[in-house]
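Class, study these two lines:
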Amino acid sequence: MKHLSIWTAALVLGALLAGAVPAPGAPPFYTVTWLGDLGGGFARPFGVNDAGQVVGSSPNAQGRDHAFLWQNGAMQDLGTLGGERSIARAVNSSGQVVGFAQDEQGRTRAFIWEGGTMRPLGTGEDANGINDLGQVVGETGGRPCLWDGGAVEYLQVPAGYWGESARAINNFGQIVGWAEAPDGHTHGVLWQSGHMYDIGGLLGYGVESTANAVNGSGQVVGSAGEGSDMRAVLWQNLTVQDLGTPGQSTWADDVNDSQQVVGRGDSGGWLWEAGVMYNLNDYLVGGAASGRVSKAYGINSRGQIVGTGSDPAGRGGALLLTPVPEPSSLTALLCGLGGMAGIVRYRRR
């Protein structure tokens, strides 16, 4: 009977292991963590680093939007530069946070937060992205710019263009953002080695586009279309790929180094990988009982996704999706299965 109970336990563990691994070609399932707020309701997360630190904005008890940093189950109010409002847009691997905040005169200032202190980035108006080297991109004076080592550099645009915004920067210094093109439309652009490339122009005349994120391989994601008909797109090696689903509007907001893309659309938050777009609501552990994902804004190298949605009670808020099993969980299951098999062999002797 002892042998039977051990084999039964081993089979049960094996079944759990098999059930935890997604089918080949399909995305993993995700657990949902609701991040809470700063006391005033609906929080919005905009970025997540590889340590699982999340940044965004949330109303406080007085109804003022404040930048937050969420980690280890707790949300921290990062404050302002003396004014009423602030928003955190990105966080790097060192936990440096950037965004914008109002100062005592009510002016909007770009900031960097580190070591518990928020400080302004010169006269900048907004900081949108930061890489692991501490280089920050955003805009000041209505022009896209780069802050590097405390100095600000305006990003160059060709004649006939007007730079609007720098949105993200990777660790190789490639920057993406938007610019107004000579045709009068906003185009997604890439700055590289001091030059600006109109990657949105590959889509043809009259098409609006935005470039929102760039990964370590130089793959850029954003959206393109005309009017209300927008589609998520991926630019790579001067080619553009439509990621969208026919009949639906989609927007791509982030891409990691595994070429996993996340965004939002008519049907909710989604994940795109290996040529297929998946509705994240179809891959939640517990299904509808875990809530609903409305928008996905960021993804890290571990595949964790941040976004907004509604919890099982219908309350809106910020969420973190974590793929299961995580590597540590999978290793534990394999070790447990191996250990049971060893016990069986020992008892048979």
